[in-house]
Amino acid sequence: MTPRHTLLLWLALFLAPCSLLHISAQEEKSVLRKETIRTARNADTLVVDTASLLTISDNLMKGIRAHRDLATFKPDPIRAMWLGLVLPGAGQIYNRKYWKLPIVYGGFLGCVYALTWNGQMFSDYSQAFLDIMDSDPSTKSYEKMLPPRYDITGKEERFKGIFKSKKDTFRRFRDLSIFAFGGVYLLSVIDAYVDAELSTFDISHDLSLEIQPTIIETGRFDMNMRTTTPAVQCVLNF
Questions:
Q1: Domain residue ranges of the chain, discontinuous segments joined by +
Q2: Which of 2, 77, 83, 231 is most buried, taking the most CB atoms under 10 A from its CB?
Q3: Alpha-carbon gap, residue 54 to 61, rounded angstroms
């Protein structure tokens, strides 16, 4: 073997491991690159529940729509009036003025209580007046109106006048309770109508009243010229 061949052989033996190391490094880099790309793709991939997103979106839209309807709701006065006539308090519910319901039904309950109380007292005093007016000694319901063991012997005429006055008083109170009940009913209907009618009334900050000086014509002529006079005018901005 010549020296040249020996040199080539040593070069081949030296370069072969280097080539193998280079190829191995390239393969490792390729594997790492693929793993990195796969990891990145997995990280970028999100599992999205479209049904939940649609449900959330629908709920948000319903909330926005309900708020918008409440803000732009304009009740019909005629419908509010008829609802109030059919069912007391229904007009206030239609106008979405729920805070008025305790006032309306509180008024009705107060009138019912007054009507019941005055009616019962009128009935008791009426019976007592009838019993003290007759000559039957067994009818003594009027004694329930007197203090215990109170004797009215010799005072019958006086107590006849008292029982008659009480009877008439409670009858008048009973009748007033009936009128008050009807008044509360009518007021609830009127309130429902007026509230619906004024629902579109402008109460914004743009309303203002200004007093300004001005010149007005008096309607008289002086030297063929219409005369004027200074004045003050009120300007309402809305």
A1: 76-200, 208-237
A2: 83
A3: 10
